[in-house]
Design goal:
Strand order of the largest sheet of chain A: 1-2
Shape of chain A: flat
Radius of gyration of chain A: 24 Å
Oligomer: homodimer
Order of helices and strands of chain A: HHHEEHHH
Helix content of chain A: over 70%
Largest sheet of chain A: 2 strands, antiparallel
Structural class of chain A: mainly alpha
Strand content of chain A: under 5%
Largest interface: A-B, 36 and 36 residues
Number of strands of chain A: 2
Amino acid sequence: MIATDEHFFSENTDALRLYSIDQVAAQTGLTKRTLRYYEEVGLLPPTGRTEGNYRRYSDEDIHRLEHIKKLRDLLGFSLADIRAMLEVDDERGILKEAYQHETEAAARVAQLDRGDELIRRQLQIIEQKMAGLEQMRATLEANIERHERKRKLLLKNSL
Amino acid sequence: MIATDEHFFSENTDALRLYSIDQVAAQTGLTKRTLRYYEEVGLLPPTGRTEGNYRRYSDEDIHRLEHIKKLRDLLGFSLADIRAMLEVDDERGILKEAYQHETEAAARVAQLDRGDELIRRQLQIIEQKMAGLEQMRATLEANIERHERKRKLLLKNSL
DNA sequence: TATAACATTGACGTAAACGGTAATCTTGTT
DNA sequence: AACAAGATTACCGTTTACGTCAATGTTATA
């Protein structure tokens, strides 16, 4: 019986495919231990469960986990940082919910503005990192170009 | 007496200004403990010392420490990763040394090639990170633009 | 020269982010 | 029905990257 699952996701518009912890581990590249850990520390909201108390992950769960992994590996964020980022995302989600039900135009615009503010805050962090990386990249490329010039010089002199 | 320092750096072409651990901590934003730790684990080669066994940091040391910090904060690298990167840099340094003393053009070109190879390897890592960041950035900006369109729509409908 | 304010090296402590194991269920298969 | 395979929680262990003393030595200054 999977009535439990149906209950949890019956009002979800997503494709309600569910995955075992093994499948999710394989797809995300995270270990099963890590999946349980992220749930334990609240990075991932409690997943659905089968009647036998086995975890069942939704597509949304997987998406969130992949996002977490990106933040961890790409940005080198700590789980605390990631939690903060996700809370922003979650607020955006709530905002979006509210947006749907809001009828007044002015209030809708205000909610869009608030969403933008949250997004821009994240953009700033990312752009800051990118600027630093860009500088490192420029330095390295300058070295390659310097080598290029030296090579040409050597070639000219050897003629 | 600072004969020790003079001995250590007498053949260094750099400005041989030396800094106390406090000064370096202030300038790099690393704690004194971290400075000692990085030296202890070999990320920073042993610094010069005063007669009284106090550490004296050179400009080169500071430069290396700032580089380490960038790798740590920007790329989110572990100290193990950073050690690997620095070893590449160090090999480049050695290569450069050898280059100076090499007289044969062919050998010089070969060394430039080897240097390029090392640099490109680092470039690849950086570009990979940047690509990931760029993607996140694009996603966020797409959301802002989506909001922009919605705002315009609301404005039009409210007239 | 005495004292305060710095430094040094152990040594132990700690928060973060999991890894690994034990005891106990659950489930697909024979 | 029985058994192997895999899941769950609980709990202890580990690594990384430092923080925090304590005991001791050094140095600038009154």
